[in-house]
Structure formats: C-alpha cells, structure tokens
Design a protein that fits this description.
Number of helices: 1
Number of strands: 7
Strand order of the largest sheet: 4-3-5-6-7
Structural class: mainly beta
Helix content: under 10%
Shape: elongated
Radius of gyration: 16 Å
Number of domains: 1
Low-confidence stretches: none
Mean pLDDT: 83
Order of helices and strands: EEEEHEEE
Length: about 100
C-alpha cells in the first residue's frame, strides 16, 4: 500500500511512499533444535512478511509473522512512529518496536 507524502531525497522529489506495518514475530531464544525450544514474541516495523523475517537479523523465526497494523514513517530520522487506524490519519499513539531498525 502506498500513501501520499512529499519527501526530498537528494534532487529527486518523492510524492508517495510505501506504507509499513508493525509485525509480531515469534523468534527462538537459544537453540532452535532443542527438544523444547524457547520462543519470544517480538515486534518489528517492515513492509511485508519477508521483510519482517529479514529484519529479525540472525534470530530464527518460529512462526510466520503476523501483521498488527499500519504505521507512519517518521518526519525526521529517529523521530516518532505513529499507528494508523483509518484513512483519517495517524493517531497520537507512538509505536516502539522491540526489534530496532538498523
């Protein structure tokens, strides 16, 4: 999904941007090949399920990622990310994923 947003990257003016989602990912803690492997739920900002798995880094994923809701892009780098509930715009709720962007 894309949404209208004006950004300037170098000399190129970008009029739309891909809308990201907050994903819930269950990752293994320790050895995934153990008899009873331990898992932990994490959240990550990504464009799709494949990107969510990729952003987990070296951690192995126990179950496929589950989309929770759409989020905004920050106005400036490192700025706040907000939840989007409807086409009316973002909410005031600030989102802090457990797996940080690199």
């Amino acid at each position: 999904m894309r949404y209208k947003n004006v950004h300037y990257k170098g000399k190129v003016k970008q009029m739309t941007q891909e809308l990201r989602q907050l994903w819930e990912v269950q990752v293994y803690i320790g050895n995934p090949d153990a008899k009873k492997p331990k898992t932990k739920k994490e959240t990550v900002l990504a464009l799709n399920a494949v990107d969510a798995v990729r952003r987990c880094g070296t951690r192995k994923v126990a179950k496929p990622p589950k989309p929770l809701f759409f989020v905004t892009w920050p106005a400036e780098e490192g700025g706040p990310v907000h939840r989007i509930n409807s086409t009316a715009g973002p909410t005031d709720e600030e989102i802090k994923p457990t797996i940080k962007e690199k």
